[in-house]
Amino acid sequence: MAFVINDSCLACGACVDACPVGAVKEGDPIYTIDEAECLDCGACAGVCPVGAPVEK
């Protein structure tokens, strides 16, 4: 099951650097996760200061 980013995203970019496969993309106004690329590893959730990445 892939992760998604909820509305609490601050667009800080921490998740972008943490994603090992580049599934996190800059969006407007918040970041998004390409579900087809997401490995469900949780790296993005582990570094997010507000817990925006959550399992779908």
Structural commentary:
- With 56 residues, the chain is an alpha+beta fold.
- The mean pLDDT is 97.
- It has a single domain, classed as 2-Layer Sandwich (Alpha-Beta Plaits), CATH 3.30.70.
- The chain contains two helices and four strands.
- The N and C termini lie close together (6 Å).
- A hairpin with a 6-residue loop joins strand 2 and strand 3.
- The longest helix is centred in the first third of the chain and has 5 residues.
- The chain is globular, with a radius of gyration of 9 Å.
- The strands form two sheets. The protein has a two-stranded antiparallel ribbon. The protein has a two-stranded antiparallel ribbon with strand order 2-3.
In short:
This protein is α+β, with helices and mostly antiparallel strands and 56 residues long. It contains 2 helices and 4 strands.
